[in-house]
Amino acid sequence: MExxxxxxxxxxxxxxxxxxxxxxxxxxxxxxxxxxTFQDNPPLLRISISDTGVGSSLExxxxxxxxxxxxxxxxxxGALSITTTGMNDKEIQHFCLNLNESRxxxxxxxxxxxxxxxxGTFSGTEVCFSIRxxxxxxxxxWAVDFVKKVLLLKDPNIVFELTLENINGHMSRRDFPxxxxxxxxxxxxxxxxxxxxxxxxxxxxxxxxxxxxECEICSSYRELLIEGNGVACNSExxxxxxxxxxxxxxxxxxxxxxxSCWSGTNSTSQVxxxxxYAPSSHLDSCLATxxxxxxxxxxLRMKEAFVENEGKIVIEWEDTAFAFMHIAIHCYHxxxxxxxxxxxxxxxxxxxxxxxPDRNLIKxxxxxxxxxxxxxNTHLFLSSQATKIREYIPDLSxxxxxxxxxxxDSEFKRECTTLLGLSSLQSxxxxxxESCISEKLARIIEANDKKSKAERGAVVPRSLFECGxxxxxxxxxxxxEADEDYILGY
Length: 490
Known about the structure:
Elements: H1 3-25, E1 29-38, E2 44-51, H2 59-62, E3 79-85, E4 91-98, E5 109-116, E6 124-132, H3 136-151, E7 158-168, E8 171-175, H4 192-205, H5 216-219, E9 226-233, E10 244-254, E11 268-275, E12 278-279, H6 283-291, E13 302-309, E14 312-317, E15 322-333, E16 338-340, E17 346-348, H7 359-376, H8 384-390, H9 393-405, H10 410-419, H11 429-450, H12 453-458, H13 469-474, H14 477-487
Parallel strand pairs: 1-7, 11-15
Antiparallel strand pairs: 1-2, 2-6, 3-4, 3-6, 4-5, 7-8, 9-10, 10-15, 11-12, 11-14, 13-14, 16-17
């Protein structure tokens, strides 16, 4: 494992546990990330991750295993500096963890002298380590991108800070690449899935977070964003201590309604995968789950799907009709087992095991989000089969219109126009009748396509007049059935 890869694995893991400590506190927390580069040969990168969540149990650190044995001691000595305290503690605890030692070694975790709290009541944890990194600028870019992915979840209880500092002798340059403020934070009243939808909107309106604020042109088209939500959980299995919940959000803009800066159609979708409020490291499992979905049932044909980088999958589509379609999937535990912290207090907090996400729940959640989209925008998500059937609407509606209008029976014409909900045919009768029949056929196809396969097999529309509400409101049902049989030649 290269130094850069090791640093990324450790960074990702430490961020993950810091987020969990903030979540468990159930109060507004601050999570700060500091990356300091000291120009040397090779440069020294000092990484500090701190939070104001509950005090650490230290168990997550004892389980760390990043294969430090393949890294020379000149590049990293394997030491982590840990500082932690609980809300009711009188002292701030200090530890040194040596990852080069085996897990069973007595010298792996060394307790250092504590510091008494002088004033105030607070809790939190800070973890620091320094490593020789030949390309610190590349690591900084990766870290900024990683934290921005976390911000997409818009957790209202966590405020993020990210500081980049480059120190060269007596010269120092400091950058603050994050632009999180009250205007971009999600309201506290929003549910977690609505917060994620809020973040996905911001990602889109900021052109993939390439802009410091939302594009003015795109923001004026905010109402064109079509959103679908889906949720699945394992509560039915009675896992009281391990309730897993999967939430999925799909955001779409039709190509014909796009603003000027979204020119043309985009044949790719960005899929963001999260696990317990951090970018997921199990993307291969998510990728296999997405590939197994019945996309053609929603009018989508997957051409290719691949993992682009940490926390993100790219899907390429065939003949998409969208300016863009982004997907966010979040798997998280609603409860955690009780763990004893260093202060002796028991609290619910993750033990450090980042398990494989439940593929079945992911599939259910994404499918539910697609069905939510289809329920309100059926014409955009017609199945491949329904789309083929819809191609016959013009010819069929034209033939039926000609059949009605070519009849010499005036009573027959009157009954047909009544059934179609038309008051008169004084001007352009061919266009009016054909358009009306075409609209009703399209509505029947869409209504039938929204049903499950079992529902479509059990309930079959009697005729093209069945879905027209105006017809049922003004005509007796028995008369309608008799007239339909007559018109269709039964």
